[in-house]
């Protein structure tokens, strides 16, 4: 199993360095943050993690009205880098963060 290494797009902090997680398609951050959706729901690719300790450095926001929590860099607090879905108890980290 190869490793996945993701650093924060805003600072040198390592967000994730661990075994490569499964990739899933889930609704976009844009739709979660309340952008108007027209037509079929848009999806985006995420790494799916069940264990918050798999991350090196992550910060989890207070829940939004939808109960979804946003993930941000644990060091500079900038994000969102993904979100926590309480329905599936999944931490979803954007695949597009991989360089
Ligand atoms: Zn950062």
From TrEMBL:
The record's keywords, sorted A to Z, are: Guanine-nucleotide releasing factor, Protein transport, Transport
Q: Gene3D superfamilies per the record?
A: Metal Binding Protein, Guanine Nucleotide Exchange Factor, Chain A
Q: Which InterPro entries match?
A: Mss4, Mss4-like_sf, Mss4/transl-control_tumour
Query: What are the GO BP annotations of this UniProt entry?
Result: post-Golgi vesicle-mediated transport; protein transport; small GTPase-mediated signal transduction
Q: Which Pfam families does the annotation name?
A: Mss4
Molecular-function GO terms, alphabetical: guanyl-nucleotide exchange factor activity; zinc ion binding
Output a single Gene Ontology CC term carried by this record. Answer: membrane
The record ties this protein, via PANTHER family, to: GUANINE NUCLEOTIDE EXCHANGE FACTOR MSS4
Protein name stated in the entry: Guanyl-nucleotide exchange factor, meiosis specific
């Amino acid at each position: 199993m190869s490793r996945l290494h993701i650093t924060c797009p805003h600072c040198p902090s390592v967000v994730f360095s661990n075994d490569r997680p499964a990739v899933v398609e889930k609704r976009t951050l844009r739709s979660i943050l309340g952008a108007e959706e027209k037509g079929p729901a848009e999806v985006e690719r995420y790494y799916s993690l069940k264990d918050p300790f798999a991350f090196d450095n992550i910060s989890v926001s207070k829940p939004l009205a939808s109960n979804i929590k946003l993930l941000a860099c644990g060091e500079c607090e900038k994000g969102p880098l993904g979100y926590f879905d309480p329905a599936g108890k999944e931490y979803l980290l954007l695949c597009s963060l991989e360089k």
